[in-house]
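Deliverable D4.2, example record:
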Amino acid sequence: TSAGLQIAIEADQHFSWLAGVEATISGDDLVGPLDSLTFGGLGGVRYSINEDVAFSFGLAGESRIADDAWVIPFFGMDWNLNEDTTFRIQGSELRLEQQLTQTLRANCGARYDVRQYLLNGSSPVPNGVFRDEEIRVSAGIDWLFDEDAVLGLEIGKVMWNEFTVLDQDG
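Output generated by the structure prediction step:
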């Protein structure tokens, strides 16, 4: 279970400040929610060259269970190819979006994800961590029922994944 908040504050017509935080609870049964709690965050800047092209740069970081936290630079890009088509790079995701009607948008893309789960004390690796990494391709449709609210349906296929089990010392 994850909850997060992202905000962009427009400084002028070209620059915006970006910030975000996320908290995730991911544990096996019998694991206390606070024992599997991890935090992440990002901070950066977005520069709009014009109304069709914008770039984002910054730093993102995340705590990890039974491992060192990581901090990495991030890059993003929004490119309006035409009035109805947008190509985006956002973190570990590539996405192409096509506006079909005023309230429907189709999309396709690829994404890298990593998830981690704290194992309980009676598992084969007591208090260890199960890590799941994957690259997924997907296609979907979004219903834009308000300026700031979207409901989407997506299908996809995992093209690559790797599972790692770490003991409690990493």
